[in-house]
């Protein structure tokens, strides 16, 4: 994964002021994500991140956080020093770009490990599931059902 491409995409989408600020935001959100995910899931995700992000993740202390949306966004707000609506926006932008740029394992792969209210945020940026139109019932179109003719009513005197 190309770190410059990721940072440029986050910088443009989140309207940040430069590479250093976008690196701070991406590392903050991935750090908060590492606090929410189980330890093994964080270990599986780390090798797929760029080297600059891995170094920042390795040097920070892990703070166990419940795997809920409110706890995750609170952790993002405390790491990045931003207010409530901004933390959700930044988290969504970063997770969208990580899901789009990581080929093997992305944060969306661990959505089943967190609370249901956090899953849509982790799945951000993934293409929607393609729904196919139901195929016509071929069996019923080929069967010929005889028409039922009602019996004549005879009246007994």
Description:
The chain is an all-alpha fold and 157 residues long. It has a single domain, classed as Globin-like (Orthogonal Bundle), CATH 1.10.490. The chain has helices at 3-13, 19-36, 39-45, 51-59, 69-80, 84-101, 119-122, 138-142. α1 runs antiparallel to α6. It is elongated. The N and C termini lie far apart (93 Å). The mean pLDDT is 84.
| CATH superfamily descriptor | Uncharacterized conserved protein DUF2267
Name the CATH architecture.
Answer: Orthogonal Bundle
Poorly predicted runs of 5 or more residues: none
Helix content range: 40-55%
CATH topology: Globin-like
- Strand tally is 0
Global Rg:
26 Å
Terminus-to-terminus distance: 93 Å
Instruction: Report mean pLDDT, rounded to a whole number.
Output: 84
Global outline? elongated
Task: Quickly list its features.
single chain; 157 residues; mainly alpha; elongated
Please specify the SSE layout and strand pairing.
Elements: H1 3-13, H2 19-36, H3 39-45, H4 51-59, H5 69-80, H6 84-101, H7 119-122, H8 138-142
Summarize it.
Helices cover about 55% and strands about 0% of the residues. With about 160 residues, it is mainly α.
